[in-house]
């Protein structure tokens, strides 16, 4: 993100903070439906619910889970794969538009983080950060859209070249001009790494996969596909230890052999992390059923969670696709399922 966008975001966020403090006097409120999270999933749910006159309330977070209100897309530059924007759109700008649309139809948005919930009985109770000892707010239904965050290695140089050669999403960024016909590296040894490396061969001149051990964790099918691809070289027992570049884009990765300790330079213009994501489920971890990786489990083809009246949408329940458009899709599903559920349980 450019310095200017960071500045704009900071100013916007501080204005929102002041606004939310003013609104914050409106505490101990009861709402029909509360949405926690403000990425594409949360805002799509808000749009559908507000158009259905259900007066949704959204808590968009105050740098919750490490992200500004608007979510993961606020940390990227061009989004080129969201339908309706043929020229592409900056991630931050796109999320501003999502927000405007939610507000236009009447969603009430609080720039606060929800730090605690009690889903043991209805109405559900929840507390705002820094007000955990106060009387909670309540809601008849909840939509959890708190998202996820890609794991990073926090290497020296990573902050300088993040989104300037370093990415955690090949499907999102692989087609960008800076990676075209350039040598690229993928870090990871599982199915995602195999999938991302194979995908990147469409764009890069060659793809190196750095695997810290002498074997892959990927399934046999994926491993075979990776190892038989002439445009991919697996560097076994290898880790990345530093990212270098010309100050504006990445052009070199310093690597280390985990067995011999040998340090080498690997000239690459792209580094893709495929080492997993962490879903933002701390809030609900003892109250909703989660899978072994911490993602919220929903019923098949549904956003219904293990607690009736609580719905989950977006990356927090999806470890497969993790795209803005799929998050928006499940946000829509959550709103429609929530609307139906409310009309059955709280008929007007
Ligand atoms: C660098 C980068 C580039 C990407 N590029 C693309 C792309 O080009 N195309 C694409 O389709 N996808 C892209 N993605 C993936 C996409 O951003 C995600 O799939 C999508 O944002 C997920 O949306 P979401 O609504 O589930 O949650 P998120 O976007 O993760 O948003 C969740 C929001 O909820 C807030 N929140 C969390 N906890 C709380 C709480 N307790 N209280 C209140 N608020 C809370 C967070 O602060 C955050 O703002 C990219 C991701 C990254 C990181």
- Residues in helices, as a percent range: 25-40%
Q: Which architecture of the largest domain per CATH?
A: 3-Layer(bba) Sandwich
Order of helices and strands: HEHEEEHEEEEEHEHEHEHEEEEEEEH
Q: What is the level 1 CATH name of the largest domain?
A: Alpha Beta
Q: Please state the structural category.
A: alpha/beta
Q: How many helices?
A: 8
Measured on Cα atoms, how large is the radius of gyration? 22 Å
According to CATH, the fold-level topology of the largest domain is FAD/NAD(P)-binding domain
How far apart the termini lie comes to: 47 Å
Major sheet characteristics:
7 strands, mixed
What is the molecular shape?
A: elongated
Ligands: flavin-adenine dinucleotide
Mean pLDDT: 92
Write down the domain tally: 2
Unreliable stretches covering 5 or more consecutive residues: 1-11
**How many extended strands?**
19
CATH H-level homologous superfamily name of the largest domain? FAD/NAD(P)-binding domain
| Percent in strands | 15-25%
EC number: 1.8.1.9
Enzyme class: oxidoreductase
Catalytic activity: [thioredoxin]-dithiol + NADP(+) = [thioredoxin]-disulfide + NADPH + H(+)
InterPro entries: FAD/NAD-bd_sf, FAD/NAD-binding_dom, Ferredoxin-NADP_redctase_2, Pyr_nucl-diS_OxRdtase_2_AS, Thioredox_Rdtase
